[in-house]
Amino acid sequence: MDSHVSNPPSAAPAIGLRAIEKWFGTRDQPVHALAATDLDVPAGELLVLLGPSGCGKTTMLRMMGGLLEPTGGDLTIEDRALWKDGERQGEALSELGMVFQDANLFPWLTIEENIALPLELKGVGKAERLARAHELTKLVGITGFEKRWPKELSGGMRQRAAIARALSYDPKILLMDEPFGALDAMTRDQMNLELQRIWQETKKTIVLVTHSISEAVFLADRIVLLSPRPGRIDTIVDVPMARPRSLDVQATAEFQTIARTLRHRLNEIS
Amino acid sequence: MTDKTLPTATPPASFGARKGMTRETALPWITTPLLLLILLAIWHFYVRGTGISSFILPAPSAVWDSWMDMLSSSRAWRHTWTTVYVTLMGFGWALVIGVGLGVVLGRTRWLELTLNPFIVATQVIPKVALLPLFVVWFGFGATSKIIVAAVLAFFPILTNTVLGVKSVDAGHRDVMTSLNATRWQIFRRLELPSSLPYILTGMEIGIVLAIIGAIVGEYLGGNAGLGFMLVSKMNGYETDGLFAVIIQMTLLGFFFYFATGALRRFTIPWHQSVEIK
């Protein structure tokens, strides 16, 4: 398999992992969720973490997002340490936006209030943050739903709002944990197209976790394939297909070759 | 994008038929007065037919007259306001302490484990039995009754608040953590609104218990309030007056109960316990 780290970046990577590892459980029953891992995510890349369940992909993403503290190693966001003495560093965190499998919108806030919530926490004035929320509803395609409650929106629209919320404070990096895993296949295709468009418009660095091979190949610049017990990087696959990709790209030989290679490797390791 | 734009087509004409008052929601407006009327009729004819002493069971008309007398007497209104005051004060204290302590206990597992036996103890003590003690400590005035009302209303508010804080969605916590929210922001923007439906349920139970606490408190000691009025009617062998006071208390209960219901619609319009209009 064609396996290598592409384009060693000249500048500091958006995300840098040095010997990052994670243990769960107790001393008697330790679980090695992620073995010592090195990985650089260059600025502007759309990186996909792919792997079977238990391979540590979500663990890795949650560590990148500051939700889990690594047991060992160094983690840098835009060349700044994310953790110091067991404390999350606010400056590094403010470069990160997270999107989860569930939209996790607050049901007591309207869509625009949800999108503006991060700005509210950062002390941005009401007029300014609502103006920003309106701007973002345009970007993610939910204009007209600003005053609705989350429960009045479909799953796909809620996820769009969640992406808008993560983008509200303009972080350089977007971390997405199976963001479209709970959506039906058609909505999922649409969301993949939309995410590609948003990524190209905003020029963010995106790390996305998925267990769907076709989603990974469609979206990724690079796919990091992880294997379980303990979670570790198995192979890194480049996806050199031209952008913007349409859904038809899935029918091309190039797409199917990459997908087939990944599927075979996944069957071997899981 | 299919879900990008709002639907602009108009619904068929028959669609609006279910709007407003449907047959089902209109039902209680007809059945409630009807059932009440039937009950009153049975009562009326029973009293007339058997010629039962008005000391045992006065006729509905006598009760009505007695209640009307009550409504026109400033003394009766003073007693009513006393009960309202005691109920609201007791409920207010229960709310502040119950929600405050509930938030702390819901967040702090070890403290909950430490205090739990004592909290359960305050529940299993027949609280009304504490009243004589409160009277000894605080006298026959309003304070001792406020405390009884508060002690009764406190527990459901506390337990529901603890439950509410514990039920905060883990995904919602992740959002606040990834946004680097402070402890206060997590409380103010997540834990409090997320627990509100639970707290309101505690309040709905608590307000009814606060009324009971106030009335029993007045009943057992002092010289003011509807509870006191009840005792004095009994001592004066005024059974119709007794009924009148009970009517007054029932209406008070209804008022407080519906007030908390209105509070629910007002404070948590987003919650599934409130229907979308």
Characterise the protein shown here.
The complex is a heterodimer of chains A (270) and B (277). Chain A is of the alpha/beta class and 270 residues long. Chain A has a domain at 103-170. Chain A is built from 8 helices and 12 strands. Chain A has helices spanning 57-64, 90-93, 111-121, 126-140, 155-167, 185-202, 213-219, 253-269, and strands at residues 15-25, 30-41, 46-50, 72-77, 80-81, 83-84, 87-88, 96-99, 173-177, 205-210, 222-227, 232-238. In chain A, helix 3 packs across helix 4, helix 3 (111-121) runs parallel beside helix 5 and helix 4 (126-140) crosses helix 5. Chain B has 277 residues and is mainly α. Chain B has a domain at 78-267: MetI-like fold, CATH 1.10.3720.10. Helix content of chain B is 75%, strand content 0%. Chain B contains 10 helices and no strands. Chain B has helices at residues 23-50, 60-71, 74-107, 109-124, 131-138, 142-166, 170-178, 183-220, 226-235, 239-267. Chain B starts with 22 loop residues before the first helix and ends in a 10-residue tail after the last helix. The model of chain B has no long low-confidence stretch (mean pLDDT 87). The A-B interface holds A 65-67, 88, 90, 93-94, 96-98, 100, 102, 104, 106-109, 117-118, 120-121, 141-145, 149, 151-152, 154, 156-157, 190, 194 and B 1-6, 169, 171-172, 174-175, 177-181, 185, 189-190, 193-194, 196, 268, 270-272, 276.
Radius of gyration of chain B: 24 Å
Average residue pLDDT of chain A: 90
Specify Rg of chain A, calculated over alpha carbons: 18 Å
**CATH homologous superfamily placement of the domain at 78-267 in chain B:** MetI-like
Features:
heterodimer, A: alpha/beta, 4-stranded antiparallel β-sheet, 8 helices, globular, disordered N terminus, B: 277 residues, MetI-like fold
